[in-house]
Amino acid sequence: VDKRQDFKVADISLAEFGRKEITLAEHEMPGLMAIRKEYAEAQPLAGARITGSLHMTVQTAVLIETLVALGAQVRWASCNIFSTQDHAAAAIAVGPDGTPDDPKGVPVFAWKGETLEEYWWCTEQALTWPDTPTGGPNMILDDGGDATLLVHKGVEYEKDGKVPGLETAESDEHRVILQLLHRTLGENPQKWTQLASEIRGVTEETTTGVHRLYEMQREGTLLFPAINVNDAVTKSKFDNKYGCRHSLIDGINRATDVLIGGKTAVVCGYGDVGKGCAESLRGQGARVIVTEIDPICALQAAMDGYQVTTLDEVIDKADIFVTTTGNKDIIMASDMAKMKHQAIVGNIGHFDNEIDMAGLAKIPGIVKDEVKPQVHTWTFPDGKVIIVLSEGRLLNLGNATGHPSFVMSNSFADQTLAQIELFTKPDAYPTGVYTLPKHLDEKVARLHLDALGVKLTTLRPEQAAYIGVEVEGPYKPDHYRY
Ligand code: NAI
């Protein structure tokens, strides 16, 4: 395959800008850079062919180049139609040693503003490896589980021409996936079956993708082992929380530039993401109201000083609404009809089904208008306007640039160590879903202390013995909640 054609990005000439931001990000990603140094000689990922499906941002570029530095070959797609930073994608395609005329980087298929057809085509390209025995990867690095889903649905389709869950083609997305599988069946009736046979495992980034994996494990349909990276403490208690604390208001500000102070903001869901979002809005001076279905999280929100009530109670009073649940049908069209003029509505959960965009479009007489990409006004027949961010998709990546480097260094160090675990110790992980061993979780945190000037206290041996741990850790039992 000609390297010049084995990628698709928006504008290859953005590579130089991308490279400059990647260089700045490297300094802010001490975990990844330390891992590069530690494993430079051992090359633990030599022989790994990793297909990645994860937001193609500057931070992800540093992850990709870390995997390459550890010996892996990589192909990449974004895991959301709006989340790619085009300059990062260009820089990855060109590579540190290439030029736009002579690209030498990683095959990447991602641009900001893909259609659904393009999105699934990109995912397929990332999973399709030229010149390999099975035509596929031997590892997947996933965020939200779409690459893993395509392989699993492909295998089911090739087995009996059916894909449970997709056959109804009830959404546009289902229709697009079915069409894609129908096409690949014509091209190679064993494409996905062959490809799946060589996959050693997947490492999954986010809450929603992890849900899908446990579901497949319960149903007995999971085809290969998986490491749940999300539930590493250094991932979900940092990226989901502190990452969203940074990038939620970044997205709202860039999209609307509305003053958040003094406004009433509703955060639906008070899990890790909701906690970060609520703090972020409160930090700007908003009055924050939380909705929850879980009494424990509701009590936590109350103890943290937030009013907790139902959406119904506040639907006509609040100025900003953010969904963070990973659940569906949180804000329905009938809810949006009751909102104040120029209320802002956005989602930061992984998929776009938290806000009923389809129902909104079906309201008779409603008019959608684009203010700028990823910011739309919806005018109701009575003249009332609401502002919807990123068409209901995750707004921190659609309207801003996602989480900043330092927090992603934690998540991506977890990803890298998880890839090494699954790739180098296949016998230790029979098909199933695992979390990272705690000593690796603690290692990732440790790699980020120096950069912040943290001085850690060292346990004395008698203290270690007294609390029943080793001096060098792990320091907590697996059930500890942090
Ligand atoms: P979580 O499970 O910790 O929190 C979700 C919370 O929503 C739970 O407390 C749950 O009880 C609550 N909830 C569920 N249904 C609800 C309803 N109908 N009304 C009100 N609350 C409800 O999950 P986490 O880790 O906070 O992730 C949430 C979503 O955000 C997932 O889709 C995840 O993949 C995504 N995510 C997005 C990120 C981003 O950068 N945009 C970063 C990390 C995660």
What report would you give on this structure?
- Its cofactor is NAD(+).
- It is built from 19 helices and 15 strands.
- It is α/β, with parallel strands linked by helices.
- Strands 9-8-7-10-11-14-13-12 form an eight-stranded mixed β-sheet, covered by helices on one side. A seven-stranded parallel β-sheet has the order 3-2-1-4-5-6-15, sandwiched between helices.
- The longest helix has 24 residues, at 233-256.
- The protein is globular and about 65 Å long.
- The chain binds 1,4-dihydronicotinamide adenine dinucleotide (NAI).
Secondary structure: elements and pairs:
Blueprint: H1 15-27, H2 30-38, E1 49-53, H3 58-69, E2 73-77, H4 86-94, E3 108-109, H5 116-127, E4 139-142, H6 146-160, H7 172-187, H8 191-197, E5 201-204, H9 207-219, E6 226-228, H10 233-256, E7 264-268, H11 272-283, E8 287-291, H12 295-303, E9 307-308, H13 311-314, E10 320-323, H14 333-336, E11 343-347, H15 357-361, E12 367-372, E13 375-379, E14 385-389, H16 395-398, H17 405-424, E15 433-435, H18 438-446, H19 461-467
Parallel strand pairs: 1-2, 1-4, 2-3, 4-5, 5-6, 6-15, 7-8, 7-10, 8-9, 10-11, 11-14
Antiparallel strand pairs: 12-13, 13-14
Helix pairs in contact: 1-3, 1-4, 2-3, 2-17, 3-4, 3-17, 5-7, 6-7, 6-8, 10-11, 10-17, 17-18
The structure holds 1,4-dihydronicotinamide adenine dinucleotide.
The site of 1,4-dihydronicotinamide adenine dinucleotide has 32 residues, from helix 9, helix 10 and helix 11.
Function: May play a key role in the regulation of the intracellular concentration of adenosylhomocysteine.
EC number: 3.13.2.1
Keywords: Cytoplasm, Hydrolase, NAD, One-carbon metabolism
